Give the backbone structure.
Amino acid sequence: MTEIETLEAFERHLRSGASLRGVVLQGLDLRGFSRELASVVLAGSVFLGCQLEQESLQAALSQGAMVFPPFLGLPYLPYRSSLYTPEELYAEFDPARPESYALTLDARIYAHWNAQGRAHPPAILEALAQRLHDHAITDAMEELLAGQGKPRKVVAIMGGHSLLRGQPAYRDVALLARELTRRGFFMVSGGGPGAMEATHLGAWFARRSEAELDAALAVLAKAPSYKDREWLSRAFEVRAAFPLSAEERTACDSLGIPTFHYGHEPPNAFSLHVAKYFANSVREEGLLTIATGGIVYSPGSAGTIQEIFQDACQNHYNTVGVVSPMIFLGREFWTRTRPIYPLLEQLAQGQEYARYLRITDSLEEIVQALEEYGRAVGASHLPRPVL
């Protein structure tokens, strides 16, 4: 079915003289188009959360169109047609007043989510609205990953949210993401602070020098933890000091996939696209599924370890249709501090993914391994992940 998600696309469709049969119109305010809608056949069309004049609504229903009405009074759009951006989520944020975060869309949706029972809303309509929202986010994310008919080479970096700005490991993740972005990989992460933020910071600086990255790191280190009052303000200070041009936004693109389940950890400000979910389980599985180019595991705790074994399960049973690299950054950490790697090595014996397991302290070795895998498989031959 054809999807129409903007008024401009809707008007182009009407001008072309094409029928609306088999067309899905998503989240559009069509109250000014009653005359145009009266002149076309509406049978077989689908209206997802569109606003319609009464006569248009009656015509659509009488002709057999499917009409999913909009939800009113919510701080979020269940039928949204695009991913979030930091600019949208933080539109009301004033870096000079860190407390202004409470006014942002991100904070307002999180407050609403808390007030509605968090992951278990008692109201069935609230639960339905959240599921529709997450479905719309997945749909928009799949469109982003498909690009212009050329699938992106998606690589994820996982790691702890508690990794502090100013720590050497934070810089290592940023350097790694910067180099991978320069080589054409599309970086994704869980979209939050710590190692996740470092991933998107590295992508943001893909067109800049290491000295410029270090200058940004020095600014960020003034508020090391996401619990610090100026954590978000320092990020916006870096964004202002090192802005991206339109061309650079294309070259420095990245995707964060956070969740309102951990809404006390605001999404980082450096991912250009934000696929923020209500259902954390959907978000976790989807994040691992889209990373068909490989996943790098930097040091982390329970959440990162959960992701490791979810990814291992996907590879073990080849549930995604491709077996991809699992690379562990930090030999001491993953063999002694959190001795996950020896267990995973044993689990993988006799399985195809055993040859894609790697543990190293070398950023260069990680880049080389991911490039070798990409050349061997070829992005055009990777199956389109079904989320």
Notes: The chain has a mean pLDDT of 95. The longest strand covers residues 153-158. The CA atoms of residues 75 and 251 lie 32 Å apart. The radius of gyration is 22 Å.
